[in-house]
Write the structure tokens for this entry.
Amino acid sequence: MTFNILFPILARLKMNVIPQASLFLGVIPALILLYISLKGYDGLYKEKLIFLTFVAGIIIGFIAVLIEYFTRDAGLIIIILFPIVEQLFKVIIVNLRRFQGKHEAVIYGLTLGLGFGAIFVPFSMIVTSSFDTSNSYTVILGFIGSLGYIFLHGATGVFIGYGIYIEKLFKYYIYALIVHIPLSVIGLIFIEYYYVQIGLVIYTVIIFWYATQRVMPVLLSQSNRRKRSKKN
């Protein structure tokens, strides 16, 4: 199906349909990323906690969305403060006593972050659609831009979890803020420009790739070392 066919169809969507449909558009990509990212990590996590942290991410993400919605007119300073609040929410959950100093913190940071990012899809699509509810391009724009939040929050969840695991939380919390602020500031200021949104999605994909392909594999190497030491 080409965009030329898709745009007229989306143009006929009513605003009360967008939030319901876009909720699935957020959860499904997040679950797909979770499934792909956890390949090869069997035995390093509990499925029950994967589910619980993902749901917890959706809940705290919804709270963050409400805070941002009601403070959206407060100016640039508030926009810069958004990443601080959002990453603190992740720290509160992943830094529970049962995860401190344990490799599981990295994996549960990922699942929490993906759940957190999933809820931003309906929020972003509603905000973008508010510019022109009859224009299907805005719906596509909102969806494309919102995907970046899934990648970003998944990656920053890994950073925070890794910081908790190696007991350098503050350092990796700052890393999470550094990669988050560009999306928060640039994405919201230039929300109507599709090329900016696409550029930010590419940026977040790179960050997510680094988190899952360079940070998380440390767990596998350490797990293999433990297995070899037990055999010896």
